[in-house]
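Record type: monomer structure entry
Structure origin: computed from sequence
Chain ID: A
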Amino acid sequence: MIGEQRDDRASTLADRAYDYVRNEILRGQLPVGSVVAEGTVADELGISKTPVRQALQSLRRDGLLELGPRRQVTVRGFSDEHRREIVDVRVALESLSVRRACERMSIEQIDHLRLLLIQQKRAVDAHDEDRFIELDEQFHLHIAAGARLPTVERFLAQLRGFVRVMRIGLTRPPDVLQEVWSEHERIADLIEGRKPTQAARALREHIEHIEY
């Protein structure tokens, strides 16, 4: 029993370290190429190095960190080829999820999609791009959840991390955010109308529009 409690505590601390470092990367506080040292993170969180080491290993598996010079762990950059790969994978996975969502998403889940759109419109009007991006992520992941595709949802969550890193330092004007919101509304309309082919097409055009 005591051993199980220790394992649970170690897992909790590793999760805490994982969330902390991941958020610092996604917020741009740890730019591409930054060294992420176990000792520094452990000191900042007031924990030992062991759970931090576990967290950094998980982030390497996720693709957000990599081994740099002298085997230091650094924040990963993305080549043009890798960016294209990420977009292609997103299109494939999200096309599947939006098609299934047209078949499986409940009225309550569609209502929640509409609520996210209302909140996102407020972010557009307030010129709050950080909040807009958070809601953008929730919108896309909620479609996968409504499609009842947990594996796809998990993969998309990982890809969204890559997308956030690739967009760091890029500021989009309010009219672009308005366009993105309008495309989201179109996708939601097609899901509610149970039109899988049109929804998949709108989703693909949306992703390629915002990434290129």
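Annotation 1: The longest strand covers residues 65-67.
Annotation 2: Residues 1-7 have pLDDT under 50 and may be disordered.
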